[in-house]
Amino acid sequence: MNHQLIKDILCEIGEAVCNKVIKSLKEQSIETLSAVHEEAAADTIYQIDKDVEDIIVPLLKQHSESLGGIVLLAEGIEEDSEGGFKLPDSAGNLTVKIIMDPIDGTRGIMYDKRSAFFLAGAAPNKPENYLSDIEVAVMVELPTTRSAYSDTLWAIKEQGANRFSRHLESNELKVLPLRPSKSPTLYGGFGQISRFFPPGREILAAIEEDMLSEVFPDAEEGKTIVFEDQYISTGGQMYELLVGHDRFVADVRTLLNKRLKAEGRKKGHICHPYDICVILIAEEVGIVITDGYGNKFDAAMNLYDEIDWIGYANSELKNQLEKPLFNALKKHKLLD
Q1: pTM > 0.90
Q2: Bigger pLDDT: 248 or 81?
């Protein structure tokens, strides 16, 4: 794999998606952009999602032969193609497998409310790939019309991670640091359990309350000890960890759904592998990511699996929070 070339191509596609999203936001109404285009197998595809799909495949086709052939796994793009969408169509050898979420955070950006993110990860193509096989990851901010800049974050395996900000009118680039929080405590910082979709939000809120009660048993009455931010985007949550805004995020909706199903209740929406395909960027800067059971995170490289993930900005925060979190998960029957 030509890592640098793949990184440049994914950044180019992410930038094109960013420009298209901003153009759509400026030219189309909220009602148009938020209209449901299709109920796909993995998720709902809105009109704003469809607007960007048509620019991704042509850009990849331009580079597919130079990369030795591509297998594309992308939400909304030929999802039913067995083994992924192959480029070029007549390819014999398929060297690179790319997993992509063209717009992660559609529900926020289609209302021009909050940034979404283009997410992509590339791995050497194998019959069965895992997210841990990814050697290049790129995420590009898709900002609201009120923004002047878009951030791009990228990583090459074992070569660290990088960030630059692009001025949306001049295209001037400015290199910025990636600085996850080094704080050893959640006190005075942002940290949360994801509960932005019903059902079961009352369960997740109770788990968070019990966890924080154990972490801070002597918290002074009337004081705000921890803040929360329910960012409706896995890419957005990862970004907040990467730049030091958030210190802790737990998305355990798959565990929640198991309890709901056992109780005869309807299951809710969950996280898929494409939502977290840029985990390499977090790992390259020392953020600790586990699965819902506390194991080192990994997942099959596909569009459909249901996954949980827990992110700690550093290992000291993991040491402070993991046991209280798992005690609360067990208390509320999400874990045995």
Answers
A1: yes
A2: 248
What pLDDT, on a 0 to 100 scale, did the predictor assign at position 43?
Answer: 60
pLDDT at 81 over 70: no
3-state helix, strand, coil in the chain (%, to 5): 35, 25, 40
* Angle at which helices 201-215 and 315-331 cross, to 10°: 130
Closest CA to 77 of 43, 31, 28: 43
CATH architecture classification, 189-331: 3-Layer(aba) Sandwich (3.40)
Residue 118 parent element (H or E):
strand 116-124
Percent of the chain at pLDDT exceeding 90: 79
Sheet with 173-175, edge to edge strand ranges: 85-87, 70-74, 96-104, 116-124, 136-142, 149-156, 161-167, 173-175
Q: At what angle do helices 3-27 and 47-64 cross, to 10 degrees?
A: 150
The neighbour count for residue 195, using CB atoms within 10 Å, is 22
Report the phi/psi class of residue 240: left, alpha or beta, with left for phi > 0 and alpha for psi in -120 to 50.
alpha
CATH code given to domain 3-175: 3.30.540.10
Q: How far is it, in rounded angstroms, from Cα 272 to Cα 306?
A: 5
Q: For the chain, give every domain's residue range.
A: 3-175, 189-331
